[in-house]
């Protein structure tokens, strides 16, 4: 809040302001499984870049409502959540391999068994180029 509110428009202002905060909270809850080890500030950083230029609460509510809809998978929020999930899984795998280096080879074998032939050939090419 940057300006002094006029009494006659305060109810509408606070309605949209509260609705925005509730939708942002819902979005953070959606992101929590993949940002639980980041802390609240980091989760806020994942919401803020999506909406940094929006100062109009009403416009932001409309945008967030579109983004949070369950049937909508092709939007900025869903893309961000998928990216965070991917980063989270990769970090878990890295951590497990670093903590248990003796299972690295077994893990590679197991992972390659679940790949398509083209993915396996790509992995082979990458591994061959690592030595050079």
TrEMBL record:
Superkingdom of origin organism: Eukaryota
GO MF entries: acetyl-CoA carboxylase activity
GO annotation, cellular component aspect: mitochondrion
Listed GO biological process terms: fatty acid biosynthetic process
Descriptive protein name: Acetyl-CoA carboxylase
Organism encoding this protein: Magallana gigas (Pacific oyster)
